[in-house]
Amino acid sequence: MTDTFTTPRPETHGQYLVAALYHFVSFPRFAEFREPLQIVCDENRVKGTLLIAREGINGTIAGTDEGIAAVLAYLRAQPEFDRLEHKESRASSMPFLRMKVRLKKEIVTMGVDNIDPNRVVGTYVEPRDWNALISDPDTLVIDTRNDYETAIGLFRGAVDPKTKTFREFPDWVRNHSGLHNKPKIAMYCTGGIRCEKATAFMKEQGFDEVYHLKGGILKYLEEISSEESLWEGACFVFDERVSVTHGLQEGEHTLCHACRQPLTPEDLLSPLHEEGVSCVHCHEERSEEDRERYRERQRQIALAKKRGDRHLGS
């Protein structure tokens, strides 16, 4: 990661540049910044979601190389974000429907007061040093993501808390005394933001040696070859690509638009799968009334596609 926009690597492909970013910083003027930021994104035809709060900024955006460069330059022109870092990947089609700049209480919601990564945080570990750390028998590796994300990929040997939301993570830590059995805790997440806040929480809970993967899984998959990698599976991403693999290539997963769970090619062959209506994960949880409502939505999506439009429910 660098502090300036860089030319996309020649081995990447796809018409659209995707930039994932976050930055913890004191940002008391966040509310007044929402509208100007929305305007800059719209003017440059950039789409995605950016969350801004008193504690900083977080989000993912996509657009042309020039459009993304313009938005990043605008952000870095702000004194709060002059050291903003981002991670790049590419998409073959626009992975977002619209641009949303949202005001939030937290840029990643843990729900614990006074957790400030600018005050106390774990030790950053570069992707090239990550394998050695998590292979150390004195290290406990923890995935801080949610269950639908961990379902399609994990680092080898990682503990999966199986949380539904990040809000559940603090209680999971408090209820697992065995986490103190090893001297080192290594944590990771998609892009770095959740594990950065999680390490701050762990330090507050009295854990001494707490580490986290700098740049998250995305940076690891970008920099570490598949031959050297200790990553198994694919990495869930919060856009229409659904997943990425080594080299940040688009994965094979699609999304169930009924329950938002990632689906493998094998899942699509199940008799429980009906596009936009149900899948192997949610079929038993839905009533026939639910499924009929989803079928109507799917019919509207198909009609919009036939007209050459894109239905917002797709």
TrEMBL record:
Residues 135-229 form the Rhodanese domain. Keywords: Oxidoreductase, tRNA processing. Signal peptide: none annotated. GO terms for molecular function: oxidoreductase activity, acting on paired donors, with incorporation or reduction of molecular oxygen. Gene3D superfamilies: 3.30.70.100, Rhodanese-like domain (3.40.250.10). Transmembrane segments: none annotated. Its EC number is 1.14.-.-. SUPFAM superfamilies: Rhodanese/Cell cycle control phosphatase. The keyword Oxidoreductase applies. Belongs to the TrhO family. Catalyzes oxygen-dependent 5-hydroxyuridine (ho5U) modification at position 34 in tRNAs. PANTHER family: RHODANESE-LIKE DOMAIN-CONTAINING PROTEIN 7-RELATED (PTHR43268:SF3), THIOSULFATE SULFURTRANSFERASE/RHODANESE-LIKE DOMAIN-CONTAINING PROTEIN 2 (PTHR43268). This is tRNA uridine(34) hydroxylase. It comes from Sinorhizobium sojae CCBAU 05684.
